[in-house]
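quick one before i forget lol
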Amino acid sequence: MKLFKYIAAWIMVILFLAFIGLSLYYLYYSGHSTSIVLFIGFYSVNFLFSFIVFIQERQIVGKISWMIIFLIFPFIGHIIFATFGQRYKYKVSKEMYFSKKTFEYEEINSNNKNNHFMLEKQQNISSRGIYPANIEIFGRGDIAYEKLFEDLKNAKKFIHLQYYIIKSGEIFEELKEILINKSKEGVEVRFIVDDFGRWAIPSYEIVNFLDQGIRIERFGKVYFPFIGSYNGYRMHRKMAIIDGEIVHTGGINIADEYANMNKKFGLWMDYQMKITGKGVRSYSLLFMDDWNHVTGEILSFDNYLKEKNDGDSSIVMIEDSPEITEPIIQNSIINMILNAKKTIVLTTPYLVPTPELFNAIKTAAISGVNIKILIPGKPDKKSVIIATHYYARILMEYGVEIYEANNLLIHSKIGIFDDEYAYTGTANLDARSFFSQWEVIQMVTGPGVKLIKNVIDEYMLNTKLLSLEDLKVKKLKDKFLRLYVNLFSPIM
């Protein structure tokens, strides 16, 4: 039914465009001037695209941004929208999403010693189990890869990998060697990689993996000439599951820059979390669901749910995707912010908050909560750092403390609240993570929070507290910045 509606909608669009084309043709050959014909053509196309955006289920700020882009960048803006701006067409309600088979294997009722009321609130939002877990945190990429590769080499039964970016280089070569060796030993290896994110490796590497018995699948295949709703919706999750007993997850992809081996990006700081214990279960279920999404194959729950029931911390996993009509990760982070009583510390490479998140941070600051936000001193995307500085300056006016890393690219996505609960994961504080990408984060209570805080404390040693004067800009430039941010941040 959804496919029929999608096809019918495009037929109507094509017929409308054909009607416009014929009308313009007759106008031109009826003696009307070229300028009038072009004006009517532009108006008609702009009306069509604006109407499409208006009737779609989108954030109102996103709708306004696209409509203004159509006006400022005629035809070019329409092409960009048709290529990257279409709404994901397979959205389902939260209730329908949670009716998936994998959720039946979550153990919802728990009495962990580190249970916190926030975990139970979070469980109500995400429908994932609260589990005991042992946690290790690696605050640098080189250490994270060392620990990950060590666990991969010790795999006995299966390895499940899922990453957004894979790039040729030393890290990739080492991973490739490990996976090929494990496959030869009889270890099952499954690998999901985002199709856009894997463009930095040659296609023959994919073929080589398949030849070596490694099941590698591309998520969200990109087809030329790029016309399709999938193009802007990317798999941003990163995790490695070993024998169902260990999961590594965080902000690190498979590329040399995460281990500071790429001069272009300089010193890159990121983190990785290693989880063992019952908390691995939700990640195994999530991978199985994503594998089914890509291949149609249903993996055996009996064969791949192998976690041990132990752990001194408590954890609940939170996933989100364009499939769900509700922005679960955004709602979860806002819930954490608004329940904080004393302190909040956030790190993010991209501080481009949605209006809902911005208002939550502002409200918490006004209510007297001490808020510190750590942003990069060296960006990987210059366009985003402009927006980051803009929002940082506004939040500073409400008492939020903004810390900038000294010539470092801090890529970690972490939040700590009252030193009692925390989240880490793959989601940035921007609209793309909340609405256009498959993401996963985890909420933690117990001793694991202190380990996460230790990473933040290490980062803070190499930062400076920014003042309004540091981010001050001239009035004319400020007007252009305001236009740029208001126009593009909802769709960055």
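fyi The longest helix spans residues 2-29.
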